[in-house]
Each structure stands twice: as C-alpha cells, then as structure tokens.
Amino acid sequence: MDETPRENWSEYLLLAVTVIPAMIANGLMPSWDVLPFGGWMAVATLGGAVAGAIATPLSLRGLVSGLVAGVGIFAGIWLQVALRSWLTAGAAIWRPELVVGALIGWAPGIWLHHAWARPQS
Q: What are the residues whose beta carbons fall under 8 Å from the beta carbon of 58, sequence distance 6 or more?
C-alpha cells in the first residue's frame, strides 16, 4: 500500500511529538524535563491529534486516529520502560526496547487510521 507524501510527513511529526515527550517523561532526557508527567502526555496526545488531522483529507477522523496513536505510543513507551525498570532494576534501557513499546502502542491508532480515516479510492 503506497502512502502519500502527506501521510509520510505526518508520520514523522507523530513520531517526533510522541517519542521525545515519552522519553523525557520516563527520565531518559532529564535536562529537558520542564513539565509534569501529565503535561508531556498532553503534548503527545495533542501532537498526535494534529499529525493525524494532517495525514488525511478526512480531518476529523484523522484527528481521532492520531489522538489514539499519540496516546498509544506515549503509553507503550512509558509502560515498556516502567516494566523493564521494575523487572531489572538499574539495568540500562536499550533503544530497540523503546521501539517495541512504541510499535505496540501505535498499532491501534494506525489500524484505525487505515480502516476508518483514510479515503477509500
């Protein structure tokens, strides 16, 4: 399935506005931590909604699917780091682990986008 340039750029925006706040909220970038946890979650949620609205001409549906994807990516990374820290206290977190958490969290939002928010040709 080919993606339009609009969808490609909105995916880059979605990843930037969700992964970076999730890393900051988890303490992986401590010098950037200027908001409480809920603030970073709001940044990821609203950023995901904007990215979803940009991704498709069906803006309202894109907004909803982007909101689900934004919350999912943030929560997936947060849960991955929290679970990993709980299981192996003091061990370093590897970047591929963050990707696994992000992909698991992203799945409902991307499924919703492809099934509901993408224009049918």
A: 117, 118, 119
Cα–Cα distance measured from residue 39 to residue 72, given in angstroms and rounded to the nearest whole number: 16
Q: By the 8 A CB rule, do 105 and 83 touch?
A: no
Q: What's the mean pLDDT in 49-75?
A: 95
pLDDT at 16 over 90: yes
Residue count of the chain, please give it. Answer: 121
Q: What integer pLDDT is reported at residue 24 of this predicted model?
A: 96
Burial, 72: exposed, middle or buried (Cβ in 10 Å; 0-12, 13-18, 19+)? buried
79 sits in which H/E element: helix 59-87
Residue type, 71: V
One-letter amino acid at 111 equals: W
Higher pLDDT, 90 or 91: 91
Output the CA–CA distances (angstroms, integers) from residue 120 to 31, 58, 110, 111, in the order listed.
45, 11, 15, 14
Give the Cα-Cα-Cα angle 30, 34, 37 (nearest 5 degrees).
85
**H helices present in 88-113, as ranges:** 95-112
